Amino acid sequence: MKVGKHTLLIDGNYFIYSRLFVMPRPKTGKLLGDNDSKAQFMRKLCLDLASEMRKMQGFVDDVVVAVDSKSWRKDLFPQADYKGTRKQDSAVDWANVYDVYNQWQEILKTRGVTVQQTNGAEADDIIFDWSVVLNDRGKSCIVWTGDRDLIQLVNHSKANDAHTIWFYNSKKSLYAYPGFQEDMERMASASLSNDDLLFDMGGDHMTRDDYQYQILQWIQKNKIQITEVDCDEFIFKKVIVGDKSDNIAPTVTWQKEMKNGKLRNYSVTDKMATEIWKQYIKEFDNFAIEYLFNDTQKQIVSEIIHRVVGKSSPVLIKNALSSNIALMVLHNDIIPDAIQKAIYREIDEEWEGAVDDITVLFDRDKILEGTGWLSGSNNPAGMDPFAGMDVPSEKKSPLKLVGNKTETKVDSSTKRINNLF
């Protein structure tokens, strides 16, 4: 194992969908409705992966892509209609999307990337188990996704100095454990004497210093915003407010009649959840995720929610809280044992510690070399590359006298879109 190097855990479905919906819409037909647009999409996927890999090359040596399958949550909690509000866009050729996605996975496998799909598990479950296993083995992880639920995986093991951090590249946002930035700025070698440095120049402390420096350079060069978060507090609040995108209701909802006689729906807010957290800490000093699996603790939390919000009842709140914990918390006590065993078995079979030649992933053409996907036009026939995009035309200021000549000055605030793919 390379001390200090990270494994990049990619949420495959997030990666695909986030790139799909920035693709230019065709003037006619469906998005990804022909072979040229499929090839363009494949190149886009590999280009974006290579771009981020180049930026992280100083501290990432392995890549895992987690792929969804039908979730066990839908089978165990049919009444919750988990993710029931998600609908597929009829303007997209989904058969072609999944074809590209599947072929992209196969290409990555040939480049040394681990691609894992476990029957009954979501990508979230797979990423959770990978982070647990790797951290336990002293390997740090970066979770690459836009799914904020996975912020709950942010962690730091003081026993072996491994950590898990959450990265949303589109927003240039990094969530890390409390004290992360201070840790990165404090060099391990600073505590050693000159004699220690002289006789242990190739030690683990030097490797750790190097990756800390590389991470700080990555953060600074790419203007990444760091947010340090207590994951226990994060998930405490999350199960209280629910998740609209996954069709998970808040623990408390109520209606209020307006002046016009119509009823308006209300629910517990993020601000209320913060007040509930403060009240819990005031009364009990500390909290750990494991408390959510204790019936007495759930009762206590439900009663505090009721006191702060002043709606519903502790009994109904506890029922809603229990459901949200089962649907939202990633933990060994939540994921069914059979699913976890299958995920862990595949991790043991697949994990080798690092990609043999990580540099292959730094270049789109190297990723796609020999596949046939590099040929084809950049802009498929019938495709308007700017359809659906707000691209203002250049604004020009009035003619301005410069010396003996007049010139038109282009407004510096004008947005330009070049080299889309």
List the helices and strands and how they pair.
Elements: E1 6-11, H1 12-20, H2 35-55, E2 60-66, H3 72-76, H4 94-110, E3 114-116, H5 123-136, E4 140-144, E5 155-156, E6 163-168, E7 173-176, H6 180-185, H7 194-199, H8 204-221, E8 225-228, H9 231-241, E9 253-257, E10 263-267, H10 270-284, H11 295-309, H12 314-328, H13 337-350, H14 364-368, E11 400-402, E12 405-407
Parallel strand pairs: 1-2, 1-4, 2-3, 4-6, 7-8
Antiparallel strand pairs: 5-6, 6-7, 9-10, 11-12
Helix pairs in contact: 2-4, 5-13, 9-10, 9-12, 10-11, 11-12
Keywords:
421 residues, eight-stranded mixed sheet, two-stranded antiparallel ribbon, disordered C terminus
Could you characterize what this model shows?
This protein has 421 residues and is an alpha/beta fold. The chain is built from 14 helices and 12 strands. The strands form 3 sheets. Strands 1, 2, 3, 4, 5, 6, 7 and 8 form an 8-stranded mixed beta sheet that branches. A hairpin with a 4-residue loop joins β6 and β7. The longest helix has 21 residues. The protein is globular. The C terminus is likely disordered.
The proportion of residues forming helix, as a percent range, comes to 40-55%
Question: Ranges with pLDDT <50 over ≥5 residues?
Answer: 188-206, 377-421
Kindly estimate the percentage of residues that lie in beta strands according to DSSP: 5-15%
Tally of contiguous helical segments: 14
Oligomer: single chain
Class by helix and strand content? alpha/beta
Number of strands: 12
Using the alpha-carbon principal axes, give the shape: globular
Largest sheet: number of strands, sense, barrel closure:
8 strands, mixed
**What is the C-alpha radius of gyration, as a whole number of Å?**
25 Å
Order of helices and strands: EHHEHHEHEEEEHHHEHEEHHHHHEE
